Amino acid sequence: MIASTDLILVAVLPSPRDLEIARLLGWYRIPLRTAPKVVAVDYLAFYLTGAFADDRWRIQYVAPVVGHELTTRMELLHEESDHPRAGEEYFKIQIGTLERLSSPILADKWRRITFFYTTGEYFLRAQTVRDLIVQSGEREILWQTLRERATQSQTYGAGSLPEVDLDPAVLALLLGIGESGAPYTTEIGEEAFE
Question: pTM of the entire structure?
Fold first, then answer.
C-alpha cells in the first residue's frame, strides 16, 4: 500500500480503453512530447476524464510503478500501425495491479488536468484533487525527491539520460505547480494522450 513518503504521479486516463489496457496488460503510455520530466515514481494515480460517464472527473484507481521504458506507439499498439503518430516515442510505464479506491478523490471544480506530482501523505488524506497539491512549506521535500529521481542514471531503450542539476524554479515547472499552489494545466485534447 502507499506509504507517506511515496512519490505519486497523477496521470490522465482519457478513455475506458486505456483503463482496460492498464488493468489487463499492466502498462500505461505517455507520449514523450507531452510527458512529465520525471516518470520514475512509486505510484500512478489515474484521473478519469469525462469519457467515463458516472465515474468521470475523479481519481478512482492507483497502481504501483514497476518499471518504464521508451518505445514507439506502434510497438505498444500493433493494431494501429497506420496511426499518424505510430512512429513517435512513448514512455511505457509498467504497473502492478490496479487498486480501486474505496473513496474516490473528486475533481471538484478542476476538470482539465494533465500530469502533476504529489506525495503519499497528501494522497492518503485527499478528498478532492485540490487536496493533492503539496503546500509551499513541504515543496522542498518534494523537490528533493524529484531532484534525486531526475539525477539518477536511468536506461530508456538504447540510451540513458545524463545526470542533470535542476534548480528549484525548474523543478516547480516540472512539478506542474504554479505560484498559487494550483497545478499548471494545459488546454489539450485527448489526442495528446493517443
Answer: 0.76
